[in-house]
Amino acid sequence: MSRNALSASWRVLAILVLWAVSSGCTASAQADKPIPKAENGIIDLSSWSWKKDGIVPLNGEWSFEWLIAPTKLDGETSFEGSTLEVPGIWGNTNPSNETELKRQGCGKYGLTILHKKQKEMLAIRLPNISTAYQLLIDGKIELTRGIAGLNGGDTVPYQLPATVYFNANDNRTDLELIVANFDHRDGGIRTEIVIGNVDHIQKLQTKHAAQELIVLGCLIMIGFYHMGLYIVRRKEVANFMFSILCLFVGIRMGLMGEGYVLQWIDVMTWEFATRLEYISIVTAGWAGFAFFQSMYSCEIKRIWYKLSSWIAALLIISVLLLKPITFTSWLPVFQVYILIFSAKALVGLVLSAHRKREGAWLSLIGVAGLVLTIVNDMLIYNGWWISIDLLPFGLLFLIVMNSFIISLRFSLTYERAEQMSSELTEWNNSLEQKIEERTEELQRSYQTLEEAKVELERMEQSRTQLVSNISHDLRTPITLLQGYMEALKDNVISEPAQRDNTIKLMLSKVEGLNSLIQDLFDISVLEAKKVELTLENIPLADWKERLTEQYEMEMQSKGIDFSCALAPEETLSESVTIDVLRMDRVFANLLYNAVRYTPNGGTIRITMSTDSVHSQVEVLVEDSGAGIEPGDLPHIFDRFYKKDKSRHSSSGGSGLGLSIAKEIVELHGGTISAFNPQEGGSAFRILLPMTAK
């Protein structure tokens, strides 16, 4: 892999990470002054300008009361007063009185916000909170997610982010957040709660939604794209595994964050969503490892894939059979599974890169970026790190690397195709049997190169016909030349006059051979479709005048009545788009052919007419000669076709004129045919597309 590709890869990773961090950051990006933090349950925002400074996270010490003797959520319930750092997970963050918090229970957070009186409404953006909560603002219930009970029987878990709007008519606002968790391994507030004016909070919400929808849409589209590739070609198991990886990471992303899957399927319970989330973790990890095992099977042995599959099956069965409080407590087991097989994939890719496997360096970079986001994700959900979920972006980076690999493979394929095309040109000059053998090899090895195969068959057919035609029409004049030259050598022809006549005959034969060779070259070029036409729009009236000027005087000198006319006269306004010089050759072949078989005093006429229904121009070339034998009509446009009938080979010609005329007409998108009119003679009909007005 080149340094430029590596440099581009790292730039893509940096851009994705920076975009993710900047897009996911919830703190005020506009504020130049320090962001206030809560202390002892109070945060002072009296000097904060909502319009100028933007949103602010409500981080710091919130007042916290941990349930001691649960009865109900009112004044009769006993709480132990202290403060607790927000954001923080119960069990990892202890209250200020150093009382150890359990991971399951019920607690009441409190925060007093000091601010200026506001005419406009303010808004609070709440993230997913484990696992049910109730928000009160100035003692009034403003929002609930699930039912925050004092025990597991009374609690109904449900997680979705939310935005709450409220009036700030006073100098202070009191928040109370009652959080209950009896169904998940972690309880508490995992990520930041932010406050700001309505415009800034809505912009933040829209930004997060757009970011998540873009990434989710990309994952789903790429997943279904690779699934389609697998359906088309079942042997490519890597496409299926990559599809599963993308789709299940997309499902997990849709269940978390903005929770679009939960919003879309509103009957989905929290328990079902949690089971699906953990199944998605295991399935995505298994599919990702299987993808790289199938891509680099020499470095990652299949036994590792089988081991991964067995462990994944056991983890999925545990998720299906056990309660959420149990299998979520096994999160470290899930994470160790992901880390072990991610490390094994990295080791295999390092070995592949060392062996210079195709695309291994790009895969290694992509997997390294993905593993970094996996570690970041684990740190977040264990409560050891406050950040954003970067796993979907890591997968997108891997997809970018995968696209580089596909581009690299296509480039190498095209390079090989160009190399083979050059070799085919050389092979075309070898023996017919050798070409057939090589053609069979190419057909087996390069089935996808259909265009190259068609071109090769056309070239082979042209070569075979060319050899046959040359042996057919060159043998007689060469034999005559050989006889003349032997006679001159042996002084059989000794008289000067006879020698001069013999030399003239030899020169005429040589000229005939040159003419034949030129015709052979022209027909080969035309049939290979290598001719570039110089097209111009010419009115039929001008074309008629051109043909009249070229042939009228010559025909009259040979005693032939020649005419060129338009029928009807309204065709004067019509035109055709043709290569005039090449069409001149068509008429030269047709007319001189007609002259050869038209007796003295006969007629040759050209008639041009139009067919407006089919947008065609019809040109008839008719003569009063002997006509064409009916048995010869289907073959007269074949190369070297001459029969000893009405048009005998002794009358001259290479036998290629009509073939050349046919190829030129077809290059113009037209057709040419021959028939015998009832009144006698022969006729050739040319149909050409009419120029659109």
From TrEMBL:
Its main location: membrane. Residues 469-692 form the Histidine kinase domain. It is found in: Cell membrane. It is an enzyme of class 2 (transferase). Its EC number is 2.7.13.3. GO terms for molecular function: ATP binding; phosphoprotein phosphatase activity; phosphorelay sensor kinase activity. SMART domains: HATPase_c, HisKA. It catalyses: ATP + protein L-histidine = ADP + protein N-phospho-L-histidine. GO terms for cellular component: plasma membrane. One of its GO terms (biological process) is cellular response to phosphate starvation. Keywords: ATP-binding, Coiled coil, Kinase, Membrane, Nucleotide-binding, Phosphoprotein, Signal, Transferase, Transmembrane, Transmembrane helix, Two-component regulatory system. It holds the Pfam family HisKA. Residues 417-469 form a coiled coil. The chain crosses the membrane at residues 213-232, 237-255, 275-292, 304-322, 334-353, 360-384, 390-412. Residues 1-31 form the signal peptide. The keyword Lipid metabolism does not apply. InterPro entries: 7TMR_DISM_rcpt_extracell_dom1, BphY/WalK/GraS-like, Galactose-bd-like_sf, HATPase_C_sf, HATPase_dom, His_kinase_dom, HisK_dim/P_dom, HisK_dim/P_sf. This is histidine kinase. It comes from Cohnella herbarum.
